[in-house]
Amino acid sequence: MAQPVRVAVTGAAGQIGYSLLFRIASGELFGPDTPVHLNLVELPQAAKAAEGTAMELDDCGFSTLAGIDIHDSPESGFEGVNWALLVGSKPRGPGMERNDLIKENGPIFVAQGKALAKAASDVRCVVVGNPCNTNALIAQHNCREVPATRFSAMTMLDENRAKAQLAKKAGVNVGEIKNLAIWGNHSSTMVPNFEAATIGGKSLTDVITDRAYLEGDFFTTVQKRGAAIIQARGKSSAASAASSCIDHVKNFLTKTPEGEYFSAAVPSDGSLYDIPQGLMFSVPVRSNGDGSYEIVKGLELSDYMKGRIGQTRDELLKERDVVKDLLA
Ligand SMILES: NC(=O)C1=CN([C@@H]2O[C@H](COP(=O)(O)OP(=O)(O)OC[C@H]3O[C@@H](n4cnc5c(N)ncnc54)[C@H](O)[C@@H]3O)[C@@H](O)[C@H]2O)C=CC1
Ligand SMILES: O=C([O-])CC(=O)C(=O)O
Fold first, then answer.
1. How far is the CA of 12 from the centre of ligand 2 (A)?
2. Does the residue 292 lie in any domain?
3. Quick one: which H or E segment has residue 237?
């Protein structure tokens, strides 16, 4: 059998960890012929709960699960890992915005960024913990040993949410909707660019002609879906977040079909779409199939979309300013 892929998951005893780990261990993420070694990284006080999760992982009898270790520090937890999925951090409660968490959660990503220096030379790091764009920025700044393009933050849940809403509206299967990219921050300013999307190969705006819905209900539903889930469930989304994290990593590992793209927050090189250099900004990306990717160039943006993208960019610049002391 092949060498195991080593994956660290922080917050392993949390809600998202409880959904995510089983789907990685089952072979769903890296395929049935690739063994996986899991490093469950938790705070010392949650290590016991992580042990319980590890016992359940064993009890599933997954033939792809090569081993599990539990770590109460990122320094040992990230040693030799090929993927670091940074989930562990506090979730928001009702009435909060995600960036209200920045002061509490930001420092976690300083220590974790530094610890990524111990990872394997091909490590890729995905930040899920909120506010995820700015946390990814903090981790990346604190780990100059790893190229910036190996860091990303997850906006795949937002893309999936947007596609689900549009599929319902158009009465089609969600798989018919392509190229619905999320731009900017994983926050209530995010921009689901419906103008470039297609349904069954046709322009989405030719199929859903109700522009007031697209600019109104559709936009706000996607932007505020996380809050609506907290309102309904009393806790933030977990299974859907884990599922979208699986999609995020799979998208990076699979060559993106010709003419298509997916959403991920990645560092801007400053040359495209007036996004300042270095910001972790969600954009349409295409994977080369080996984890590396390219930002899609040359997309036409209407003045309406440019205005919306400007708002989310300004919010990310403000977040960057708030954490400037954490950026090495
Ligand atoms: N990017 C996205 O689309 C989404 C992001 N999230 C975010 O993911 C994060 C986790 O959410 P849940 O699993 O629901 O929270 P949770 O509270 O159920 O679990 C968080 C876990 O992280 C652990 N943790 C905290 N600090 C840690 C550290 N320094 N190192 C290792 N582990 C640590 C805690 O002990 C806890 O077990 C939250 O910040 C949440 O807002 C949630 C949904 C979607
Ligand atoms: O809304 C939250 O706080 C959790 C999250 O990021 C989401 O569900 O998109």
1. 17
2. yes
3. none
